[in-house]
Write a structure and sequence with these properties.
This protein is an alpha/beta fold. Among the domains are: 2-148, Orthogonal Bundle (Arc Repressor Mutant, subunit A), CATH 1.10.10.10; 176-323, no CATH class; 777-881; 896-999, Serine Threonine Protein Phosphatase 5, Tetratricopeptide repeat (Alpha Horseshoe), CATH 1.25.40. 61% of the residues lie in helices and 6% in strands. The strands form 4 sheets. It has a 5-stranded mixed beta sheet, sandwiched between helices. A 3-stranded mixed beta sheet has the order 2-1-6. It has a 3-stranded antiparallel beta sheet with strand order 3-5-4. Helix 9 packs antiparallel against helix 10 (225-237) and helix 34 (759-773) runs antiparallel to helix 35 (789-797).
Length: 999
């Protein structure tokens, strides 16, 4: 079945699922497919196709051109009957499907949920056919109709969710509508009502503030009375109205683009999302992010490991206060509307091969920097969309051999990137300067559009002149200032940087890191060199330090590079800024895969797991050639997107979908380890141990890392309950492994011993782990680092609650060097929550109550969804201590982030409440996902043995003796050799298992 994707970016996939190239990738032929997809069963007449796409051709030539296009399409679609009809053309529905047809059908039958799921973005977003103004107007009309249908579906879903008591769902749908229509008073009131119903009056009031500011800024009108009246009613009900700093922060986010200047605030230093070039004074302070950034520093192991762009663990999902997100989205939409005139899409330009035929090697070496620098400079114009040099390198390295740098390779890469025009040329040395002969080539026809000869005293002057000439050709005004002031004035530094990008595209991350470091030594103010130097670091502390430096330098970078730097920094430290930055990148630079990647990651950080799939799949579509690589996944955005797609389904507890995507990835990249490891992990979580075991040897042949090998072996035994075998494997690694493998083995041994109830031994290993790990925490200020977390967890499980609380509290005070403020807040929130849990177990409710307020206050500074909800969990503990079971249940449920991948103590605490309420089957429903979490991350704070013990109790209460016996037996085996209290519990569990089995 052929699939046409039109909502969002336009793409075509054949029956085998592969993207189609050739005729189907050329703009006018792609436009034919879009027209047919939108027409559905009605079809489109040949005359209409000719008038929209070849308006200047006479009837005979237009008919001939259309026939040739249809012939080429049928050939590329590998289905002669895919396009049926003679005069009226339409798709054969048995051979071709499209998202827009399915969307229209869903709207017609009132299936709002399906319609909302299909709407992945604006109709033909970013697609343009030059010289076809009628087609552009048609796109605008259809885009408006479809967007209106989408808005109606969102509102219907929002109102239906609220009517059914699903306040969380209502908030989600109203948020989408408010982001789509930020000036719509009805949407704003709907979102405010849903937030208030969900108990979040403070955010509802902030939403009113955002709406007021947007109406003020864009329409110069007073806000709708219904919005202000409802906000006033909420203020009277709550003393949690936003202070002046909050208003200033929102104002800064929205107003920056119109002012194009940094906004000075009195309450705290901020830098807003400034999308215009700006040269900071020499004595200006380093910019500080507008919304406090969040590092990945939890004891969750995905965050404790290297978190750089090329050395990440699984995603640390994060979010931002709803108000700031919607403000940012609204601001970006307003900016985008202002910067481009209606019905006029900017040209998509790629810079191709710049040749140099001089015998001087140093002059020949300047050709590559000219190409990169020209692409960077042209991207400053609002009249153009420019494919970045990095994107061109990615595509060329995936389709050609490294030595193939001919014009054909550049043209092929430009077409794959969606460019409509390519610029190439020749560089000459002249007395007193340089000359660059450029030509513009229309990629659709191959015709040369124009030829230009440019001269300049040096490389940067040459590029400035070339930029002015080329922008003028497209009807624009040359950007102000020299590109040298926004990159570097050192030719050597830029040459090293370009060479680093080439090396990175080839997958040699270590060599690229050295080249970027050398470029930075040549010019310490070169922002992009600092950025890439940070992204290629294998360790977290240098990553954060280097990216912080790049962030400071980004004030003097071009708009695109500044946004990319800030988005990369925000993603690394899980900053609340990421959502706004990603939205801006997608709208301004949709031809870049990283724009859509960050959009997907931002949705995951907001806890919108399934909503992240659309933009991540778009990355896979755009960067599918990356899957031809067999060396590594370094620099492969499609690979990162596939990892996140699988993760999104896992966190959403949709393991069937996660398995499907993981298997698809193994087919796309069968010769690298990452997809097989992802599939293994999904199978393990699903309890398909025989299937995962079959993959072990294959993964070992692809992944030679001894650290990850220890982790996989230990994880398997923890899940299956074969703890004796697991202990033997781990102790062997302790004796024979490298230092890092031994350190990992110590971590895994603490887990294994905790599962067995051997806490005295676990404490000794945890102290040893802390001793060897603390020196690795370079740049740490404070006495107790996160390496003490295993010991604190053992103390808690041993009933030494006061000691555990003291240790968790001490850990809350340490910070990594240059870690941003919200990262410190994030760390403190988690450690203080664990301290509060320990104090609650000790019966000190007064101390817990005091900590609850602190956790609420600190958690609000973090952009991570889980952090913002942890205070609710602590309040649930207080309600439970007062025997307010209904209140405790509500608090625990509202604190949940993901049932399989959140804070697993929530699952257990909620299950205990449900058991006391006499609802064992509800308890089972929240306990079972806990066994599908990551054993050394989200499940770190609760052993599977404890979860099995609770499940045994719940199945017992539910009258299911067979299921209860299975879990009792698991507990009996695990705690058989534990410390005395656990041995006693094991004996009781064994007796109960035998008793139930005999029934």
């Amino acid at each position: 079945m052929i699939r046409i994707q039109t909502l969002g970016c336009l793409s075509v996939r054949g029956a085998d699922g592969a993207l189609l190239t050739g005729a189907a990738a050329q703009p006018r032929r792609m436009a034919i497919l879009a027209l047919l997809a939108r027409a559905g069963e009605r079809g489109v007449t040949r005359d209409k196709l000719r008038s929209l796409l070849w308006p200047d051709a006479d009837d005979e030539r237009g008919s001939r051109t259309l026939s040739q296009a249809l012939y080429a399409l049928r050939k590329d679609l590998l289905a002669e009957d895919a396009i049926a009809g003679a005069k009226d053309l339409r798709f054969d529905p048995a051979l071709v499907t499209s998202d827009v047809a399915e969307f229209a059908a869903a709207v017609s039958r009132g299936d709002d949920a399906r319609a909302a799921d299909l709407y992945a973005g604006q109709f033909l977003d970013g697609f343009h056919v030059s010289g076809a103004e009628e087609f552009t107007r048609w796109v605008d009309r259809e885009r408006a109709v479809l967007a209106q249908d989408y808005a109606r579906a969102l509102e219907s879903l929002a109102r239906g969710s609220l009517a059914n008591g699903n306040t969380g769902g209502a908030v989600g749908w109203w948020r989408k509508l408010a982001a789509l229509e930020p000036l719509n008073a009805r949407a704003t009131v709907g979102l405010m009502q849903a937030l208030a119903a969900a108990g979040d009056r403070a955010t509802a009031i902030k939403q009113a503030r955002i709406y007021e500011l947007l109406v003020e800024q864009e329409l110069e009108l007073p806000p709708d009375k219904e919005v202000t009246a409802f906000a006033e009613r909420l203020r009277m009900q709550s003393d949690d109205a936003p202070k002046g700093a909050a208003r200033a922060q929102v104002l800064a986010e929205v107003a920056t683009e119109s002012a194009r200047q940094p906004v000075a605030l009195t309450d705290a230093p901020h830098t807003t999302i400034d999308t215009g070039p700006r040269v900071a004074p020499a004595d200006a302070p380093a910019p500080v992010p507008a919304v406090p950034p969040v590092p990945s520093m939890l004891i969750d192991r995905q965050n404790a490991r290297p978190a750089g762009r090329f050395a990440r663990g699984p995603l640390a999902v994060a979010g931002i206060a709803i108000a700031v997100v919607v403000a940012g989205l609204a601001a970006v939409r307003w900016i985008a509307a202002r910067d481009s005139a209606p019905n006029e899409a900017p040209a998509v330009v790629a810079v191709g091969r710049i040749a140099s035929y001089t015998t001087d090697s140093s002059e020949r070496a300047m050709a590559a920097p000219v190409s990169d620098l020209l692409a960077t400079s042209l991207a400053r114009s609002a009249r153009l969309r420019v494919v970045s040099a990095g994107r061109m390198l990615e595509l060329m390295r995936r389709t050609r051999t490294p030595d193939d740098t001919g014009s054909a390779a550049f043209i092929d890469a430009a077409r794959r990137a969606g460019a409509t025009e390519i610029i190439d040329g020749t560089l000459y040395s002249r007395p007193g300067g340089l000359r660059l002969d450029l030509r513009r080539v229309d990629l659709a026809t191959g015709a040369i559009a124009s030829v230009h000869s440019i001269e300049g005293a040096d490389l940067f002057a040459l590029v400035d002149s070339g930029t002015a000439r080329l922008v003028a050709v497209h009807g624009g005004v040359a950007p102000t200032g020299s590109i040298a002031g926004l990159t570097t004035r050192s030719v050597v530094a830029y040459s090293l940087y370009v060479e680093g990008m080439k090396t990175l595209a080839d997958g040699d991350v270590a060599a690229a890191e050295r080249l970027f470091g050398a470029a930075l030594r040549e010019d310490s103010t070169f922002a992009m060199a600092a950025y890439q130097y940070g992204r290629t670091s294998p360790l977290r502390v240098p990553i954060v330090s280097r990216l912080s430096r790049a962030l400071r330098l980004s004030a003097n970078a071009t708009e695109r590079e500044r946004l990319m730097i800030r988005a990369g920094w925000a993603e690394t430290v899980t900053s609340p800024e990421l959502g706004v930055l990603a939205d801006s990148l997608v709208r301004r630079y949709p031809q870049e895969t990283e724009s859509h990647l960050y959009a997907g990651l931002a949705r995951m950080m907001d806890g919108e797991f399934l909503e992240a799939i659309g933009p991540l799949q778009r990355v896979v579509t755009m960067d599918s050639l990356s899957f031809t690589r067999t060396d590594s996944a370094a620099g492969c955005n499609a690979c990162t997107a596939m990892t996140r797609i699988v993760s999104s389904y896992v966190v959403a507890d949709s393991l069937d979908a996660a398995e499907r995507e993981a298997r698809r990835w193994t087919q796309l990249q069968p010769r690298i380890a990452a997809p097989w490891i992802a599939l293994w992990d999904v199978l393990e979580r699903a309890g398909k141990f025989s299937e995962s075991a079959k993959l072990t040897d294959h993964i070992a042949s692809l992944d030679r890392d001894p650290v990850t090998a220890v982790t996989r072996a230990a994880t398997h035994t923890l899940r299956t309950g074969d703890l004796t075998t697991g202990e033997r494997v781990i102790r062997a690694a302790l004796q024979a492994g490298t230092f890092m493998a031994q350190r990992e083995a110590m971590w895994q041994l603490v887990l294994n011993l905790r599962y067995q109830g051997r806490l005295a031994e676990a404490a000794a290993v945890a102290r040893r782990y802390r001793t060897v790990s603390t020196p690795l925490d370079s740049g740490i200020v404070g006495l107790v680092t996160s390496s003490a977390a295993p010991l604190a967890s053992v103390l808690y499980e041993a009933g030494r609650f006061r000691e555990a609380a003291a240790l968790f509290d001490s850990m809350s005070h340490w910070r990594a060097a240059e870690e941003p403020p919200s990262g410190i807040a994030r760390e403190r929130t988690w450690r203080l929550t664990l301290a509060a849990r320990s104090l609650a177990a000790a019966g000190d409710t007064a101390a817990v109550a005091a900590l609850a307020d602190t956790i609420d206050r600190i958690g609000a500074q973090s952009g991570h969804v889980r952090d913002r909800r942890l205070g609710r969990h602590v309040r649930g503990l207080l309600l439970l201590a007062r025997n307010d079971l209904a209140g405790a249940e509500a608090a625990f449920r509202s604190s949940a982030y993901s049932w399989p991948a959140g804070f697993t103590r929530v699952n257990c605490d909620l299950a205990l409440v449900l058991l006391r309420l006499g609802r064992p089957r509800d308890a089972i429903a929240v306990l079972q996902p806990a066994l599908r979490g990551k054993v050394d991350a989200s499940n770190f704070y609760v052993t599977h043995t404890e979860v099995h013990a609770l499940l045994a109790q719940a199945w017992d209460a539910a009258g299911r003796s067979d299921s209860a016996a299975v879990h009792h037996a698991w507990v009996a085996r695990a705690w058989e050799h534990g410390d005395a209290p656990f041995r006693e519990r094991a004996a009781t569990a064994r007796q109960r298992a035998v008793s139930l089995s005999s029934r």
